Amino acid sequence: MSEMTYRDAINLALKEEMRRDPSVFVLGEDVSLYEGSFKVTRGLLAEFGEERVRDTPISENTIIGVSVGAAMGGLRPVAELMTVNFALLAMDQIINHMAKIRYMFGGQTFLPMTIRMPGGGGSQLGAQHSQSLETYFMHCPGMHILYPATPADAKGLLKSAIRSNDPVIFLEHELLYNCKGEVPDDPDYVIPIGTAEVKRSGDQITIVAYARMTVLALEVAKLLESEGISCEVVDLMSLAPLDTETILTSVRKTGRAVVVDECWSTCGLGAEITSRIYTHCFDILKAPVKRESGLDVPMPYSRHIEKLCIPQVDTIVRAVREVMSGSY
Amino acid sequence: MNATLRNVVPEQELLRFYEQMFISREFEERCAEQYAKGNITGFLHLYSGQEAVAVGATAGLHRDDYILSAYREHAQAIVRGADPRRVMAELFGKSTGLCKGKGGSMHLFDPSLNFMGGYAIVGGQFPIAVGLAFASRYRGEDRITACFFGDGAVNQGTFHESLNWAQLWQLPVLFICENNFYGIGTEVHRSSALASIHKRTCGYDIPSEKVDGMDVIAVYRAVKYAAEKVRESGRPYFIEATTYRFRGHSMADPAKYRSAAEHDVWKARDPLPNFARKLLEDGIATRDVLDDIEAKCRQTVDEAVSFAEESPWPEDSAVWEDIYV
Fold first, then answer.
1. How far is CA B302 from the centre of its chain?
2. Tell me, what's the ipTM?
3. Residue A151 φ then ψ, to 5°
């Protein structure tokens, strides 16, 4: 194990996979000479050269389309979209092409490609640079969606993404880049796609979360332990496919759930998870499931009102207390 | 055409051109019939009138070269070598179709022929073509990528992004615009500020050329030359082939936006009878030889229809297959 940041764990996963497989290459805006706008691709150009670490024009739709073509032609592209917000310019290639090609061509080809996208709010970047769009992708079959909470998970999941023969969207939370954690040194450390993990055991209430929300949920669980509330934290890690079984197993044990997501509440991923809990656990629930989500507003700039739009430790604490006390 | 045909192309090739154009037309006309019968459903875009482009261009490429196209692509797939029976079965939605009945008319695909797909979002194939060309270069393969598209696609962002990208990364892409002058019902001068499409590449410093898309030999010569340029230089090249579709945009379109007089002018330039006449005039074929070719094509298409009719529907379980590896 080595201690490193979430950023460096992603960087290490990229380097290890590029060393392992010469068909892996990286492309994106400012990923090569500039080493990435979040410096995630630092050192790649020096080690792997220009043909494998490629700066692109600011043409997001074509970045993804070129990756689709390259994947069809036998390569393993890892595209970086500078932020998830810019993915909206690439939705035609993501949804109409990448997610459809294998199916509509009758399984005659496959697309071993990964799209990395930093995202999430809380950095005072304003309405156009602070979105959490995970639900947009989750709605569409034909691709996997991963969103790690810790440096170790970031490494293990990105390596699985790059080795996968299906297209994968790999989301990275901008506020986690500097977070540190222990990361396995094993160059074959991979986390299977489609598995959630119980990050903390508890027996009174389940908090379902992912990415930065998992980090907050773990803080909440620690705080509430002193009050005698035992929280179990399920970290989704893989948003598609969703590991429903791990969520349900936890809720069957605790009988209560708070579902935390960072995206907008309406049709958000919390709505889907809550629906699955109600469908399968209705008769054993001790209280209604509570959702803690982003507010349904465009993100404001000022930090005093920005923080109102994203679940915080105190709002999650309040949600857990409400479910525990039945004062819903 | 100044020279006699056989000075340009070997005799057997010329007969093959005729056969490929004829089967393309026959296939499309039978598709129209099967659509009227309800055996083919959904969208159906027919290629009748544009055959010289698919046939001439495909002949100018190597077998290893990738081909991508849009949604009017039956002929391009068949000319590349796709089994007409499996193409017809795909249109019928049968499990024996080229894509197991999951793609339909607009999404033919056969990687064994390097036919890398029909795409139905206008301009969607441009960046994919660029990516395939990059993969070829990265892997050290001696192949180019030919990307077919219509005049309607040249105002999409992907057109400009992909031309820029192909030239910037110096990739072997041959862009082939089939300008049939209409994007559905909108004539090219009503959608493009510069209606002379091949001139639009100057912004990307990509060499381009305009060719008569009703003349199979002219298309063949232009594409053969361009393909070799692309192969030698590793850089993109652009061809605009002017042509005409004799039918509407799709089966749902009676094409009332075009005048009968305009249609007649182009009909007089129909690539099939005109090429047949040249073959006869140059003594390359007798009427009997052409009759034999035509009869053979009709029989092939008959068999394709029978095959499609007799093939089974996909199993219910197929709906969940081929989403993930």
1. 22
2. 0.97
3. -55, -40
